[in-house]
């Protein structure tokens, strides 16, 4: 969870309840707090890097011999390098670790729950967005976001600092779905999916590249815009502020408790949250289909809003967090911990309901034709059909009907 450029880091015990972790796994794994002395000295661990797709046999052939010889081994770059193809009992142990043994410390939990309470007090239900638009993320992606030579120079300097400067093709990265959506694009996607400007949006993020100028379009599309900084005082955040991992942990607590979680990247935090929300009874997680949406956003001004929104709904089929969206054995384990989830019958059968209620569609009929919608004049929802007529309740979508597998908006918010 550490963010680039933040000077302070946190040890395990400053983020997680170490006593609870050790006791929870006592029957499975022997865990010690520090390496015992040998001949009056604490041995330095032998460091080794595990291949990214190391299989169980790989661990037996490479890691075990080193452990037997050196006695203490430190596996570096280890956070996501455990194979998805493990025996069921070992996968269940991973679930026990991820969803039961790992608990945040009391100060983090208490502050996180306070943020959730304040969100509930404002709206009852809310969306949480893991925006992930910090400079380190953008630099690592190798993508281009329209900032001209200044952006290329700034992000290029970060890549060089990491010794990861490489020949990249931003257009190719975008076509392959490797680029996070901009805040503006995330806002358009959510409005096209039927979330109106009255929805309360919690944004989990570090320092966004471009600052307020970058966030302005998203805030205009969703005026009820919140973050840990807006929901709390400087005094309340002071114990967490110097530590990026603890700040990220606060966001994690709020995102976990949200009615709908929207992830803008496929990183570890997003995957862990998606898996946790599936494991504990299923709460919806929406993932942008970046590969298909990228071309749509590049050409959005050449089509009407209705056409654009219809295409977004079509492309998002299979990315809306349905319980059976991923077949067993497919997908990354942290995001789809199917070995640990008991099979259940579907809650509802038959075709999905319309996106909006009959009353909403009737009100939407008062809008002008979508052909009159001019993207070039868009002011992010204040004076255009996208923002909606104040006399209606259906600003974003003119009463469209969803595709056969896209759920109704009321169902999304009530899952």
From TrEMBL:
Coiled coil location: none
Alphabetically sorted, this entry's keywords are: Carbohydrate metabolism, Fucose metabolism, Glycosyltransferase, Transferase
Q: Does the keyword Glycosyltransferase apply?
A: yes
Q: Where is this region: Disordered?
A: 348-415
Please, which domain of life does this record's source organism belong to? Eukaryota
Composition bias of kind Acidic residues appears in 371-380
A Pfam family (short name) is O-FucT
GO molecular function terms noted in the UniProt entry? glycosyltransferase activity
Q: Which is a GO BP term held by this UniProt record?
A: fucose metabolic process
Q: Which InterPro entries does the UniProt record give?
A: FucosylTrfase_pln (IPR024709), GDP-Fuc_O-FucTrfase (IPR019378)
Quick check: keyword Glycosyltransferase in the entry? yes
Q: Which family does it belong to?
A: Belongs to the glycosyltransferase GT106 family.
Q: What is this protein called?
A: O-fucosyltransferase family protein
């Amino acid at each position: 969870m550490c963010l680039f450029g933040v000077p302070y880091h946190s040890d395990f015990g400053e983020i997680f309840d170490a006593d609870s972790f050790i006791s929870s796994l006592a029957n499975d794994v022997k865990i010690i707090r520090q390496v015992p002395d040998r001949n009056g000295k604490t041995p330095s661990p032998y460091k080794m890097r595990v291949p990214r797709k190391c299989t169980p046999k790989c661990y037996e052939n490479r890691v075990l011999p080193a452990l037997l010889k050196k006695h203490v081994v430190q596996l570096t770059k280890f956070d996501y390098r455990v194979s998805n193809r493990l025996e069921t009992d070992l996968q269940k142990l991973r679930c026990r670790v991820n969803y039961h043994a790992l608990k945040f410390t009391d100060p983090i939990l208490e502050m996180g729950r306070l943020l959730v309470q304040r969100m509930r007090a404002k709206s009852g239900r809310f969306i949480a967005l893991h925006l992930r638009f910090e400079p380190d993320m953008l630099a690592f992606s190798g993508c281009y976001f329209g900032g001209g030579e200044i952006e290329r120079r700034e992000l290029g300097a970060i890549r060089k600092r990491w010794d990861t400067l490489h020949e990249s093709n931003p257009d190719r990265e975008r076509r392959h779905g490797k680029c996070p959506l901009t805040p503006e694009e995330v806002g358009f996607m959510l409005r096209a999916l039927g979330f109106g400007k009255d929805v309360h949006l919690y944004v989990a993020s570090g320092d966004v590249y471009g600052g307020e100028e970058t966030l302005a379009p998203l805030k205009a599309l969703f005026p009820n815009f919140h973050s840990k900084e807006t929901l709390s005082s400087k005094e309340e955040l002071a114990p967490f502020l110097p530590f990026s991992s603890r700040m990220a942990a606060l966001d994690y607590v709020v995102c976990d408790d949200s009615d709908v979680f929207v992830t803008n990247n496929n990183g570890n935090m997003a995957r862990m949250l998606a898996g946790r929300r599936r494991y504990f009874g299923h709460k919806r997680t929406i993932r942008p289909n970046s590969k298909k949406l990228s071309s749509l956003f590049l050409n959005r001004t050449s089509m009407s809003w209705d056409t654009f929104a219809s295409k977004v709904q079509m492309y998002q089929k299979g990315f809306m967090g349905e319980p059976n969206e991923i077949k067993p054995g497919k997908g990354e384990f942290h995001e789809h911990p199917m070995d640990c989830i008991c099979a259940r019958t579907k809650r509802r059968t038959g075709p999905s309901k319309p996106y909006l209620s009959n009353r909403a569609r009737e009100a939407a009929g008062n809008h002008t034709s979508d052909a009159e919608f001019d993207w070039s004049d868009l002011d992010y929802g204040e004076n255009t059909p996208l923002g909606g007529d104040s006399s209606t309740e259906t600003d974003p979508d003119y009463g469209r009907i969803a595709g056969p597998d896209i759920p109704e908006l009321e169902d999304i918010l009530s899952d």
